[in-house]
Write a structure and sequence with these properties.
Strand order of the largest sheet: 1-3-4-2-5
Helix content: 10-25%
Number of strands: 26
Number of helices: 12
Structural class: alpha+beta
Distance between the termini: 59 Å
Strand content: 15-25%
Radius of gyration: 25 Å
Length: 633
Amino acid sequence: MDLPGAERGAVMTYTAQPSTAYDPPGGGVDDLPLRRSREIQGDIIAGAKKDHVQLLLLKFEDESLARTWLRRLRPRIATTRQVAAFNAEFSKARKQSGGDDPRALNAVWRVVSFTYPGLRLLAGRDPFPSVPPGSTQEAFKQGPAARADLLGDTGQCAPEHWLFGNGTGQPIHAVLTVAADRPQDLRVALTEEREEAARHKVVIVFEQDGATLEGSRRGKEHFGFKDGISEPAVQGFDQPDPQRPEHKKGSPGTRIIPAGEFVVGHERDGGRPNDLPGWATNGSFQVLRRLAQDVPGWWAQVAVRLKELKEQGKVPPEATTEWLAARLVGRWRSGTPVAKCPHADTPSDAEAWSDNDISYQDDLEGEITPLFSHLRKTSPRDGLLLKSSDEQTVPEKGALDGRRIMRRGIPYGRPFDPAGSAGNGPDAPRGLVFVCYQSDLVRQFEFIQKDWIEEPNFPSRDQPPGRDPLVGTATDVSFKGGKVRFEQFVRTEGAVYAFAPSLTTIELLADGKLDGGGGPDGDRILEAPFTLRPADGPVGTAKARLVMREVGNLVVLDERDEQRWESGTAGTGGVKAVFQEDGDLVVLGADDRPVWKSRTTGNPHAKLIVLMDGNVVIRAADGTVVWQTDTAH
């Protein structure tokens, strides 16, 4: 590994330079091509994983100088190849030292992302000329402030109270993240970035710090619970377990998710396409949220609600605040799952903190781990029974895997300590810098926030489980037949939607260019096998969108959301539309029997194309149109 200062015993600082890329030893790398990617930025799937982080929210005052700034920044941006190599070396050294962090290995990583206005300014044109209603492009273009009601950011969490990103203050064009193992290295890097910004008329609108908590709080968020345990693995990046190939080797229970759920242009769960232009390939949408935590208020509330539940006779008389808090989270403070240890924490178990092998198959009604718990609300795993009357749980592969996000959060502020200084007091700023990556804002982050966390009756029961009492808005929760109310003690204080492009696209932006990519003239090309379910939302162009309705009807909607064509299968039990490899487009029932066909079988290598003119066609391999909706307008 090419590390500066590699003399024995020297403190090494590994900086992100193209020449330091490295293939880790140990085999299996040839089967994991994403580990060698010089295109994908390093934080997205490899993970910067640093103890000290600073996010600079930037505004460009001069577009020409901004492009020069970006061109100069480009060599300092960390790639997946670099970060993956360092992390592998770090993990190896840590294991050899018996679990201690290797002091001789240090790195500084930089990641850059751009808001919609930032992309438009740098490119000199609209980066998304086609913005279908309900699409991730629409969400990105609008930004989180305009979608606050949908996300539950109301009342004290409303944008007018935000510190940044509220749409009324200075615009944010870019987010530059600087992450380091050591605070002194972070200070040096930040000095360089501030000087570069000033030189090119790049204004720092807001600075958000973050740091791993120290001592016994290390790896935990401010409420005191282990965080970051349940992150997914990535196909093509993480080695699969030979015995359970859908899980990561050496990490039981960690599912391997198709890379396209996090990185645009790669295979997605269920083979779903995306509607994004070619320049977005190898990039990812980034969500940034500053979440303030009222630590003493939250714990005081847990104690009060425990007393109420005891008075109702709904909890054991020996239950403690720790017992109830663990059920709100789904894990004990150490990270031990409640599903495995319902009675007490196991802080002495060295493996408990990383235990991700959790099943809810024997707890579908939430008797052990409540349905409202944070863990089940944000990732239901194998225990999602949408209704009590359903015979089967929702499958992870092909359904829930496509909702996963890659979280990269870190605490900010000093821990609460009533015996400490004013910075440790109840009114001092503290919370979580929430960062996540995904290829679809609507299907992933917004769906989890709106349809799971903020939905009182998810999953649907006669007595609604309630919202997520850890991070959701105020809610009544159903607990073993009783009901108690939890107020909100996590507040949104700022939010940004940004896009972290590939290194090639960064170079294009620095030249004031973006290639369009995609199909001819922006047509949406769908290759077999392709499946469209009601939960997938619309697929298409500005003038034509294919939608599978909950009632079983496959329809084409125009730019005004008016129906232009339908399969006529409403009420027939249709649950999904499938474009098959034989060239036939069919609507299938729950038993996989067709209730409608385009009758175009016998056309292997055909393509289903949603055209910019509003028509939807099936085009054979020789270019002949063998079927169409005749909806051009």
